[in-house]
Write a structure and sequence with these properties.
Length: 344
């Protein structure tokens, strides 16, 4: 729910990182020329974004929910959790919101900073993978927003790579969830017979998207071909980022006149893919071939290249753009001050 607090001027947001569990990534599944047995313990970061309205209220939005604290996943997902162990779930998204992030200045509060049951207006889920969907039931009053096709993906899966057994049909509250408009695509990706279909809002919806949602549309923003102005004032853009899994989106948050943060979710999983030190890793697909962690490796590679071009050109124009990956332990270690109740 919106609360009257000290706030940034209209057109900007504030952003804070949230601890939402940890998992271990086998390095060879994410970058090339990797140690075949090395695992890296990484965070699954969530983010609190606070948006000021002209009427003096503040809207609270959470991007991604991380790992379920009770690991209550489907049986098929449970069977694969060993790949990602060690897992740490002691601090989840809801706890970080309530008490602050433990090692952040002002964190580990005995009081409630934000109550997940009533103080969160919106939750944007970047994509349907288990380490980003968290525990939606912790947020009984929030409106959820997801990429087009995500609700169908939870219900029916999407082809051989994503059978329905890997998803919980009731993962998100259907009556409180809105999908972003579909993106018209050329080529194969997103047009396969099994690609999930867009789910329109039902007549009995309880979702309460921003007033501008009726005019949401994908438009170019710099080198990003498809960006959607979430609040309608240029403070927060949803960025279509195909390749990783159907419905995958990123966020671009405007913190100041020329200061931005790009939340890349699983556009890539290792900062060396952005610097060019590494390439996307390929590993045995179990059927005599090779695959990557992405549904469509080439499409994911194109999304990453667009991101890199955007960062380079936007910075060349005099803008400060900070890139944050969902699973970057180095960023988390170096930016304790940016964790809630601190700000990026």
């Amino acid at each position: 729910m919106a609360t009257a607090l000290s706030k940034p001027p209209p057109g900007f947001v504030t952003l804070s990182a949230l601890d939402a569990g940890h998992l271990s990534l086998p390095e060879h599944m994410f970058v090339n020329d990797a140690d075949p047995v090395k695992k890296n313990l990484v965070p699954s970061l969530s983010f609190l974004i606070r948006h000021a309205s002209p009427d003096g209220s503040v809207t609270n939005l959470v991007f991604d929910l991380g790992v379920k604290r009770d690991l209550n996943y489907t049986p098929a997902q449970q069977n694969e959790l060993d790949i990602w162990r060690p897992l740490i779930t002691e601090t989840d998204c809801a706890k970080s919101l309530r008490n602050g992030v433990a090692d952040a200045p002002g964190g580990a509060s005995n009081g409630v900073l934000l109550d997940p049951t009533k103080d969160i207006d919106y939750i944007i889920i970047s994509h349907a993978h288990w380490d980003h969907t968290g525990t939606p039931s912790d947020f009984p009053t929030a409106t959820f927003a997801v990429g087009s096709g995500t609700l169908d993906l939870f219900q029916n899966g999407a082809g051989p790579a994503y059978p329905s057994i890997f998803f919980n049909k009731d993962e998100l509250p259907a009556l409180r969830t809105v999908e972003f408009p579909p993106v018209v695509r050329t080529g194969v990706y997103g047009n396969e017979p099994f690609a999930p279909k867009h789910t329109p809002l039902p007549s009995n919806t309880q979702a309460k998207p921003p007033a501008v949602a009726a005019s949401w549309a994908w438009k170019p923003f710099g080198d990003l071909p498809n960006a959607l102005d979430f609040f309608g004032d240029g403070s927060l853009y949803v960025v279509d980022t195909p390749g990783h899994i159907y419905g995958h989106v990123n966020l671009l948050a405007r913190l100041g006149e020329r200061r931005y943060v790009y939340l890349a979710a699983d556009c890539c999983h290792d900062r060396r893919l952005v610097t060019g030190e590494k390439e996307i890793g390929l590993y045995d697909d179990g059927h005599g071939g090779l695959r990557s962690i992405h549904t469509d490796t080439e499409e994911a590679r194109r999304s990453l290249e667009r991101l890199k071009t955007f960062l380079k050109n936007h910075r060349a124009e005099g803008n400060e753009v900070e890139l944050i990956l969902a699973h970057d332990p180095v960023w988390r270690k170096e930016n304790v001050h940016a964790c809630w109740p601190g700000k990026v």
